[in-house]
Structure formats: structure tokens, C-alpha cells
Amino acid sequence: MESDDMDYSDDDDLDDAMDYYGNEDDIDNVDPKKTDPEFFMYECLTVDEVEKVLNESVEKLSNSLKITPSLAKVLLNEHRWNSNDIIDRYRDNASNLLVSSRIKSGNGKKVAHVTLLCPVCIQSHTFDKFQNLSCGHSFCKNCWSMHFEIQVSQGISTQIRCMAAGCDVLVPEDLVLSLISRPQVRDKYNQFSFQDYVKSHPELRFCPGTNCQVIIRSQDLSSKKASCKTCQTSFCFQCGNDYHAPTNCVTIKKWLTKCADDSETANYISANTKDCPKCNICIEKNGGCNHMQCMNCKHDFCWMCLHDWKSHGSEYYECSRYKENPNIANESAHAQNLIHLQAREALKKYLHYYERWENHSKSLQLEQQTLERLKNRINEKVMKGLNSTWIDWQYLFTAATLLAKCRYTLQYTYPFAYYASMDPTSSRKDLFEYQQAQLEAEIENLSWKIERAETTDRGEIENQMDICEKRRLTLLKDFFPTTTSDMNS
């Protein structure tokens, strides 16, 4: 696979990564694989291109083992398209592979007068009307054809098996296609088979975008972000779900399952309004920034914990850290009370992380609305001719894009932090929480500045953008998911 034909995620961010970690005087020597934790080589292929890739593997295996292409497809699909493994396993006994074959006879005219009873339809047919597999089970062609059509109607293709009870022999493609007569059924079979082949191939992933036919191919099987060049949909290449770094695939699956569990979330209602902690006036959150300022008393506070914003200084952003209940360890009450106390504490911990996860998700949506208001405000300034043009304000839209990327990463730090908090042996928990807090503080600073930008002086915001992205990349570089490990890897 030539690197010139490959793409990498976040094309526009590569230059940023080089600026942060590379030598600006010798930028051509910067290796993005070492500097950017999200660097990912992949291809966006069409259906025809993928079929060519698959056929090359089929031809290689077929020639190596001297077997039919149809059987080669069966073996490749069952062994996740690892040709070398199949060749090593079956090189010495290729003749024993499961193949489909017609019942043979030395004299065709004589066979024509022989009749057999089909065990499915319980009807007698001439010998040439039967078809068997290598397992020896034989049925009439009409029953095979009916069996194939029923299986295809249920979405089954490469996993069509012998009709004999308890027999797991798979039916090769050539036999299925030879006995399916209706064109629409043949088309469905080919469509379902192709989907099965792609899903079983470790280097291929269907783009999850709506009605998108693009297939992503990569030799890097890690939890990296792939972005379709056709529909712009981004997803995790390893699991196919929304991109979720720094949380790994196993952990994010557990987290999403937990969040969807009504038994835990029924008691929690995410409120859109809170009272000002100083004057108690009701405040509605209509922006993504969590640095709130009461319009009544001008008190600055944090939307998440309601503490004075001054306590959220750049030295340490305490709001993101969950504080354990010190009474749990010293509880000496009745065992039943202790169980209830532990259950309440477990729910409290979960809600701490869930609230922040949900809040950043909502902030992403609200900041998109803020961006629309910003466009209208800038358009008004430009139309009034206040010594500025649209070009003078473009840095704000760049800042808003970076803010969304940073906040998205921050959102996915909370499932990571929740499960790490449950592991008392975690050796890197404190470092992660520190970096998470630093990132969150800088993101809120950037959000605050963007929402209140009134001039074309870009220096302060661009400096804040630089800090935010460096914080984000530092956290990902230290905690980017590899396989299924988290803190202790």
C-alpha cells in the first residue's frame, strides 16, 4: 500500500501539530507519526476498488492452494482474510478442504434412469437432479434453491449452511449462484456477501454516514479517527462508533451502556437553569461557556459546581476532580446502612461524571448557536462599515472550530476518568486529572473570549487557541488509547 494514496485524519491540523512539536526551520523533517497522537493513515475506497482488493486476495489463495475461488472466499471470510495463515494451515492437506461437488457417475445415460428420494421434499428425482456438498449430504436442486432463497430473504449469505440437521458445512458462492434463478435474489445475495466480506476484513470499515457507499481501508487497526472524504463523517476506525479518544473502545461501550440504563439515569434530570449562588436569581444557560456571570449581581461563578470562578484559576481546575466521601472508609454503622451509603456514593460519583459529560455535549450544541449569533453580529459590523471586513473576523471562526474540537476531546475524558476513579491501583490517575483540569480551564477561557469578542484584535484569542490545542495534544499524547488498556498501560 503506497503512502501517496493514503489520507490522514484532521488534514488541517497537521500543520498545527508540526508547529507545536516540530522545528519550524526544518519542518520537512517532522514525523507526524511521532508528533501527532491522532495521526492516521487510511484510504477512502469505492465499492469497485474494494472488490478489486478482495479479488486479489481470493486469487492469491486460490493459486496457492489450487482450490476454486469460491472456496477461497469461504476460507478467507472465516479466517478474517489472513491469506498467510490459511496457506500455512492447509498447504499440506488442501485436498481435504470442504468443497462443493456434483455427484459423479461414469455413465451419464445410466444415471439418468436412477431415482433417489430427497429427504426434504420426500419426492423421487433422477440422479442428475441432486446436488451434494463435501459433507456427503445430498438434496434435490429444487430444495437447495428454495433453501438459498429463504436464507437470502433473511439477510444470510456467506453463512448459508448445509440443510442436514447438525451439519455446519458452509455452502460456497458458486453453488448458491448456480441454483438461484431470480435476478433480484441473486443481486441481494451478492450485496449481502459483499457486506459480510467487508465486515470480516480487519482493514476495512464501511463509512457510517447516511447512504454513503465509501469504505475506509487502513493497516493501522488502532482507535484512530477516520473521516470520510465524501460525506465528512468521522468515526473510530477500530469499533466504528463515534470517535472517543482518550477513552478506549471497550470503556466507551461500557459507558454508553451505563448512560442508557434507565435504572440509573431515571433519578437524574439535567437542568437547564440554576440559581445564582450569590443573589439566587434564576439563570438560564444559553451558551457553551461554563464561566457564568449573573446579569443581576455580576457574580462570576462556575455552572458545574456553582463555586466562585476565582477558585478555578489556571493553577489547578478543581471542578473536574471528583472528591470521595471521607465518611465511607470510616463508616462503623450497621452493615445495611453501609451498603446504602456506598450505593448512594456510587450513584453520586456516576452523576458527577455524567453531568459533566452531558454538559460538554450540550455546550458543543450551544456554541454552534453562539457561532450563528457571532456571524450575525459580525455581518452587522461589516455592513455598517466599521473599518473591518469579513476577512478581519475569520480568525473567530477558526477559533470556534478549534474550540469545538477541544471540547469534544474534553467530553470524552469523563468516561475515561470515571472508570479510572474506580481502580485504586491506577498509577496515572492524578496526572490524567491534572491534565484534564488544565484543558478544561483553557477551553472555558477560550469560550469566554470568543463569545465576547468585539474587536478584530486577534492576538489574545490566537494565543488562547495555541494554549488549548497544546493542552489537548499533550493529554492525548500521554493517554491515547492503544488496545483495551487505560491508566495502567
UniProtKB/TrEMBL annotation:
This is RBR-type E3 ubiquitin transferase. One of its GO terms (molecular function) is zinc ion binding. Its main location: nucleus. It is found in: Nucleus. It comes from the Eukaryota. Residues 114-323, 118-162, 279-319 form the RING-type domain. Residues 354-384 form a coiled coil. Its EC number is 2.3.2.31. InterPro entries: Ariadne, BRcat_RBR_TRIAD1, E3_UB_ligase_RBR, IBR_dom, Rcat_RBR_TRIAD1, TRIAD_supradom, Znf_RING, Znf_RING/FYVE/PHD. One of its GO terms (biological process) is protein ubiquitination. Residues 1-34 are annotated as: Disordered. It catalyses: [E2 ubiquitin-conjugating enzyme]-S-ubiquitinyl-L-cysteine + [acceptor protein]-L-lysine = [E2 ubiquitin-conjugating enzyme]-L-cysteine + [acceptor protein]-N(6)-ubiquitinyl-L-lysine. GO terms for cellular component: nucleus. Belongs to the RBR family. Ariadne subfamily.
